[in-house]
Amino acid sequence: MEVVSRAKAKYIKISPYKLRPIVDVIRGKRIDQALAWLKTYAVKRVVPIQKVLISAYSNARDIHKNTVSIEALFIKEIKVDQGPVMKYYKPTAMGRSAAQKKRTSHIEVVLGRYVENKDASHKEKIVTKKRLERPKKND
Asked: Taken in order 88, 90, 91, 96, is the CA torsion positive or negative?
């Protein structure tokens, strides 16, 4: 599986702790499925992730001269790293102040080409669990 394109978004004013659970859900999915899931997830935090995915897809189309389709790409790698932390002070009771931290994030997406294996020998075998039978009561 080859790397088709990349995209980065830096200095996003959302904490990486809030972005990572969303990114974990879409990692490894096809681009169309990931964008559909993000569209239904009604939270403001998904907007920068959507923008990075669309940017990576646009980069793939530019590199490969519009020959790659959205169904043929999947998210090979997506990561959220911590950016610089802005510190500020907020007033609290009795004239004191409390330190606050505004965290920023960097998102990086790597897309790969989705290839289906048609060879039956490479398919994973599905193992079904045997259901334990309870002994029958003779009453």
From this structure: negative
- pLDDT band for position 120 (50/70/90)? very low
Contact 73, 60 (CB under 8 A): yes
pLDDT at 101 over 80: yes
Contact at 8 Å (CB) between 97 and 91?
yes
CATH class of residue range 3-116: alpha beta
Which of 41, 36, 76 lies closest to 56, judged by CA? 76
Name the E strands within 13-125. 73-91, 97-113
Non-local (6+) Cβ contacts of 29 within 8 A are: 37, 74, 75
Tell me the average pLDDT across 94-115: 93
CA pair distance 69, 67, nearest whole angstrom: 7
Question: From CA 4, how far away is CA 77, in angstroms rounded?
Answer: 11
CA distance 42 to 17: 18
Task: List C-alpha distances in Å: 27 to 36, 38, 110.
Answer: 14, 12, 10
13: how many CB neighbours lie within 10 A of its CB? 11
